[in-house]
């Protein structure tokens, strides 16, 4: 049995490309704040001692962590977007857009220097649940 890719699958592709823009944007933010805080390469984070003494180093860690966490959850997002979109391209694209927007809000909250504000982006899980549903339905 051959699987036909729906004509609306282009929306899924655009959503996947939008996730690349998201991670690139967050990466540029990390790079900019790296310079501002003085955390040099090759170090991923300021040490706990440095971050406790220098607020800009603490905030750099928040920028870095928001970006890193987004990269950590990107592979399952892309998998469920691609597979769920085979049968449900519009739903998958809307769910993917919800996830992207939620991750942006998550990052902005984290970058305030008050990590608990990252929970403002928790609505991204609605996108995750919808993508899991479309993926299960496709399978």
TrEMBL record:
Pfam families given in the database record: MAPEG (PF01124)
Catalytic activity: leukotriene C4 = leukotriene A4 + glutathione; 15-deoxy-Delta(12,14)-prostaglandin J2 + glutathione = 15-deoxy-Delta(12,14)-prostaglandin J2-S-(R)-glutathione
Cellular compartment(s): Mitochondrion outer membrane
The organism's place on the tree of life at top rank: Eukaryota
Keywords noted in UniProt: Lipid metabolism, Lipoprotein, Lyase, Membrane, Mitochondrion, Mitochondrion outer membrane, Oxidoreductase, Palmitate, Transferase, Transmembrane, Transmembrane helix
Pathway the protein takes part in: Lipid metabolism; leukotriene C4 biosynthesis; Lipid metabolism; arachidonate metabolism
Name assigned to this protein: Glutathione S-transferase 3, mitochondrial
Organism (species): Dentiscutata erythropus
């Amino acid at each position: 049995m051959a699987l036909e890719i729906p004509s609306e699958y282009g929306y899924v592709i655009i959503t996947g490309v939008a996730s690349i823009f998201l991670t690139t944007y967050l990466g540029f933010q990390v790079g900019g704040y790296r310079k501002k805080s003085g955390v040099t390469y090759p170090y991923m984070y300021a040490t706990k001692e440095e971050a406790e003494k220098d607020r800009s180093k603490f905030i750099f860690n928040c920028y870095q962590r928001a970006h890193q966490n987004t990269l950590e959850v990107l592979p399952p997002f892309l998998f469920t977007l691609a597979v769920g979109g085979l049968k449900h391209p519009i739903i998958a694209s809307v769910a993917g857009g919800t996830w992207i927007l939620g991750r942006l809000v998550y990052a902005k909250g984290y970058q305030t220097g008050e990590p608990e504000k990252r929970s403002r982006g928790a609505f991204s899980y609605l996108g995750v649940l919808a993508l899991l549903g479309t993926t299960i339905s496709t399978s």
